[in-house]
Amino acid sequence: MAAVAELEAVNIVVGLGNPGPEYERTPHNAGFLSVRELAERAGATLRRRLRVSARTARATCGGRDVLLVQPLTFMNLSGKAVQAILNCHGASPSDMIVVLDDADLELGVLRIRQRGGSGGHKGLQSILEGVGTDAFCRVRIGVGRGPTGGDLARFLLTPLTGDDWERLKETVQKAADAVEMILENGADAAMNRYNASAPPAEGVGM
Q1: Mean pLDDT for all residues in the chain
Q2: What is d(CA 140, CA 102) in angstroms, rounded to the nearest whole number?
């Protein structure tokens, strides 16, 4: 019980993606990349925890103690790892920020929401089903849909190169900034700062 009490105030930041070097630079791994960016800023190291099927790191972000998480269950089963993390640390979904890609937002655009549906994103849908509520903050990272008429799933799982990769890295850094602002100043402040330029439609991923 003492260990749970010690972690009660910890916010959990979950970045969605797929494990493995072949997926590292793909649009679908924008959430993974954002959590890695936060870990690097904090001087923390993400380490594999078999018990919860995730890489995690304790860090200080936005002036608060946080647990950074990269689920290792592959995208469509993200809820399994998230549920295990919440149970392990005695946390509730409302203590969590989920960072994910969004194909219906242009690359470079962020959309922050405090609750809502999956919008078709299978990783987010898995989390919603796993934790049984939509009452948690999410930061959607715009990655676009790739070439017009192209296969969306293939685009999301194909590594980016050149200018597209550089733009994704810039967007990931902005997403990390947004997470820090949520932690330090609250979701409303971050929404006012980062949602202003976002298109009106709710994003959809894969």
Answers
A1: 90
A2: 6
In 3D space, the residue among 99, 10, 25, 12 whose CA is nearest the CA of residue 52 turns out to be 12
What is 2-194's CATH superfamily? Peptidyl-tRNA hydrolase (3.40.50.1470)
Count Cβ atoms within 10 A of the Cβ of residue 88 and give its class: 0-12 exposed, 13-18 middle, 19 or more buried. middle
Q: How many residues does the chain have?
A: 206
pLDDT-derived band at 142 (thresholds 50, 70, 90) equals very high
Tell me which H or E stretch contains 111. strand 110-113
Each domain of the chain, given as residue ranges in start order, spans: 2-194
- The Cα–Cα gap between 151 and 155 comes to 6
Asked if residue 8 has pLDDT above 70, the reply is no
**Contact 122/206 with Cβ under 8 angstroms?**
yes
Question: CB–CB of 128/118 below 8 Å?
Answer: yes
Q: Distance between CA 24 and CA 71 in Å, rounded?
A: 14
Catalytic-labelled residue, pool 11, 17, 23, 28 = 28
- Give start and end residues of each alpha helix (H) in the chain: 2-6, 30-42, 78-88, 122-131, 152-156, 162-185, 187-194
Tens digit of pLDDT for each residue in 167-181?
Answer: 999 999 999 999 999
Task: Summarize pLDDT for 152-169 with one digit per residue, the tens.
Answer: 999 999 999 999 999 999
Active site residue 121: no
